[in-house]
Design brief:
Length: about 400
């Protein structure tokens, strides 16, 4: 099994005893290496530029420059480095300011060891991914993959991940994911769609396909995946060729899959497919957060219901506060009924995000298709709901191209 890449850490605090205590705690973690310390905000910036660490543990209250200002400067100078704020104050206003400045996490001092290690792990994974993007590679080594997996990334796709997420249940994200997968899939742009609803996922039933193999079979081998084994686990939709990674058949099996394993699996699939689509649950659990971290694009599914719109707004506020790029999200209005007063344009204005596709409400088409396990887009390409799916597919392609061009300019 390949050794995971170490997470390099810089500790910044104006109190020497605090710095030493944290350093002593981390010295027993085999995958964490402290590469520098700082006493002030200015020193934090200098050390971060010199060492380019994966993670900076940053105190908020320092004499020369507060940790929030230092965080902003570090994120400008060393964008791949992730900041974890440590503060004696757990005030939500401090937390919000820290996240807006680009901090990855916020912990109250003194931090619990397990909580600290977990935060460093999450931030370290994000840093490795960002570094891989900045040098323009899909480096399997940065993701902790074995030699077999590495060859996939060197010879196949540098795929793009699209997560379909609805922060309120019942919005129809699985229907959207199913039909979008078919709209995007061609021989040149193969698609795999992943069921991220691990407890009660039913994505495979939407394709009328069943299997004994599922995502949990791959997650336990997340560090030693190979294309042949992955292909054996994947389902193939008979009519279209879209590949499906099913959720575990029993809810308790979901507990065997960690966010870390899920993220590694998604990165591996990006080497095998042009598009990786993920259908997620409506809660921000570890799996959904891992999907968001790995996403190149997030299609947010809403309806005209006020609670659905409210939850979209709350999610977008959090998404931006955590330092993600607004360009990576757009809206899909599902079940649109023109008789209702809430119009797509108004929703876009309310949540400050573009509605790129509108899927009309049509229970005579969508519900029977779902019940039969036959995606409606297959036999009803000219239907207005199918047209909305094709609009979504084109919008996704365009947005991904724009993001790629913007990233290329930064390298």
């Amino acid at each position: 099994m390949a050794e995971p890449e170490k997470i390099t850490v810089v500790i910044v605090d104006d109190i020497a005893e605090t710095r030493e205590n944290i350093k002593k705690l981390l010295q027993f973690e085999p995958n964490v290496e402290v590469v520098g310390v700082g006493r002030t905000g200015a020193e934090a910036i200098k050390v971060a530029i010199e060492t380019k660490p994966d993670v900076v543990l940053m105190d908020i209250n320092m004499p020369d420059m507060d940790g929030i200002t230092a965080t902003e400067r570090i994120r400008e100078k060393v964008p791949a480095t992730q900041i974890v704020i440590l503060s004696v104050q757990s005030d939500s206003n401090y937390m919000r300011k820290a996240m807006l400045a680009g901090a990855r996490d916020f912990l109250t001092k003194p931090p619990d060891l397990d909580e600290l290690i977990s935060a460093i792990g999450r931030a370290g994974e994000m840093a490795h991914e960002e570094k891989a993007k900045l040098i323009g590679t899909m480096s399997a080594q940065a993701s902790g993959f074995s030699g077999a997996a590495r060859s996939v990334f060197q010879s196949a796709y540098a795929g793009k991940t699209i997560t379909i997420f609805a922060p309120k249940g019942g919005a129809g994200s699985t229907t959207v994911a199913t039909n979008l997968a078919i709209a995007l899939h061609t021989e040149e742009t193969p698609v795999v769609v992943v069921d991220g609803r691990l407890q009660f996922g039913d994505l495979s039933f939407f394709f009328n396909e069943q299997t004994k193999n599922n995502l949990a079979d791959l997650s336990i081998r997340a560090d030693e995946l190979d294309p042949e084994f992955v292909s054996d686990v994947l389902l193939e939709h008979t009519d279209t060729g879209v590949k499906i990674l099913a959720a575990p058949p029993r809810p308790e099996q979901a507990d065997t899959v960690t966010g870390n394993q899920f993220g590694k699996l998604i990165r591996f699939l990006k080497g095998m497919f042009y598009y990786v689509l993920i259908d997620t649950s409506s809660s921000l659990d570890d799996i959904t957060l891992a999907a968001i971290d790995e996403s190149d694009l997030i299609a947010l599914v809403t309806t005209q219901d006020i609670p659905s719109i409210k939850n979209i707004r709350l999610f977008l506020d959090l998404f931006l506060a955590l330092g993600y790029a607004a360009q990576k999200t757009f809206l899909v209005m599902n079940k649109y009924d023109k008789r209702r007063s809430v119009q797509p344009e108004r929703v876009g204005e309310l949540v400050k995000n573009e509605v790129v596709a509108v899927l009309p409400f049509d229970d005579k088409l969508v519900v029977p298709a779902m019940d039969r396990g036959v995606p409606f887009i297959i036999d009803n390409k000219a239907h207005p709901v199918s047209k909305g799916i094709y609009d979504l597919a084109e919008a996704a392609k365009t947005r991904i191209k724009e993001i790629q061009e913007a990233e290329a300019e930064q390298i």
